[in-house]
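thread: overnight batch results

M.L. [08:02]
morning all. the overnight job finished for the chain we discussed friday. pasting input first so we're all looking at the same thing
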Amino acid sequence: MGGFIDTVQFIFAPQIINGLSIGVAVVLMALGLTIIFGLLDVINMAHGEFYALGAYLGVSLLAMGVDFWVALMLVPLLMAPLGYMTERVLIQRVFHSRDRHMLTLLLTFGMGIILEDVYKLIYGPQPFSVDTPISGGSEILGVFFPNYRLFMMGLGIIIIGAVWLVVYRTRLGAMVRAAAFDKHMTASLGVSVSRVYAGTFAFGVALAGLAGVLLAPIYSVFPTMGKDFILMAFSVVIVGGLGSVKGALIAGLLLTQIQAISSLYISPSWSDPLVFGIMVLVLMVRPQGLFGRLGHA
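M.L. [08:03]
and the structure it wrote out:
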């Protein structure tokens, strides 16, 4: 009995906390991705590069002497106007085309490639490291946990809860869900659907940037970091259901926990194929994902 308790306490518990901390950041990124799809019906292939941009903006602000906590608040505020202008200037130009799904996918894919090259030109190919703003750790039930990961989990839960409240309990959220369900009916009620589209895209980009800053002290910041992280985010969105806020939350926490626990038994190099295997299985059994789309759930 004592051996089982020790195994849970010193082997499983740290992995669970690690999975939760990464899962919260993945959910933040996947939320932006799934809300953009749920409303605009656009798969944003540049979402990973926006995540990387958030991390690079954090690095730049820190190099200018800005405190980490100030940078954490500034980056989403800087990312939101960029997302708004991206939707207004680029996405809207092809959004109403008959082949808009393919055109928006290619447009955002090309945008991601350009952004990645811009990061290499400005910052170089070398990775940057960010000092952890909260040092040390805390002992919980006999297990030592890094304080920053605990903070990231707590902040992430607050942000996810705030997003849920905005989407499902406010007038603004009602307009977003109405536009996702029937844009023509929503427009007939006097709602500026085009502004709702741009604002939602900006909100999703801001969430991606926030996730980039939060994860910068844990992972190195480098030009291709967006590609590495976006694969997990897309898996979360597909398993949870394209456009489902609830699905992104549950699938994000579930998949990162599976990834964390499975690393105890298999090589970490197999953790990503395991997640993709689960995604394929869900698509075979339930193609629409675990939950419905925004505006339909």
